[in-house]
Amino acid sequence: MRILFISLILVLAAAMSGYGQSRFSTYNNNRFEFSIEYPSDLLKQAAAPENNDGRTFKSRDGSVEMRAWGQYNALDRTLREEYNEALSTWGSGVSYKVLSGSSFTVSGTRGGKIFYQKTLFRKSGTEVFYTFTIEYPKSQKASMDAAVTRIARSFKFDPNADI
């Protein structure tokens, strides 16, 4: 009985490991006034870019990469044009796509990895696209699903910011 109990605890501990159960940190971008949560075991890469538009985060082994950034709508593109560009960029591996009035989500697989992109569009005041992408091995799907859901839900910008 004791061996069965210990085995059950080990199975539960293994099931709860991974990014879905990770501690999370929050990245705040002061230039574009957005924030996003990320698993604490993803490491910020080097220094922020000189223009401070966002950050890149990677797992220690480099298999998981997340990027988050803001960019002015300098090309005066619509959200649909930005969405179409994302579909073109990710290619034939897109298996999920949703376009709404102020955001879009695209995900799928490419080269043995799962990708997920969410882009928000600030239409009032200065127009800005806010984007985050994450890519990870298909083998980590089970452990990453909950983390990606949490990251996507946390991704937001301050609509009242004067940028």
Task: Write a structural description.
- With 163 residues, the protein is α+β, with helices and mostly antiparallel strands.
- The protein has a single domain (2-157), classed as Protein Transport Mog1p, Chain A.
- Helices cover 25% and strands 39% of the residues.
- The strands form two sheets. Strands 3-4-5-9-8-7-6 form a seven-stranded antiparallel β-sheet, with helices on both faces. Strands 1-2-10 form a three-stranded antiparallel β-sheet.
- The longest helix is centred in the first third of the chain and has 15 residues, at 2-16.
Number of domains: 1
Helix/strand/pairing category:
alpha+beta
Q: Which architecture does the CATH hierarchy give at level 2?
A: 3-Layer(aba) Sandwich
CATH fold category name: Protein Transport Mog1p, Chain A
Strand order in the largest sheet: 3-4-5-9-8-7-6
Radius of gyration: 18 Å
Question: What amount of the residues lies in strands?
Answer: 35-45%
- Strand tally: 10
Measured between the Cα atoms of the first and last residue, the distance is: 63 Å
How much helicity do the residues have? 25-40%
Order of helices and strands: HEEEEEHEEEEHE
CATH homolog superfamily? Mog1/PsbP, alpha/beta/alpha sandwich
Q: Can you summarize the main beta sheet?
A: 7 strands, antiparallel
Mean pLDDT: 88
What is the overall shape?
globular
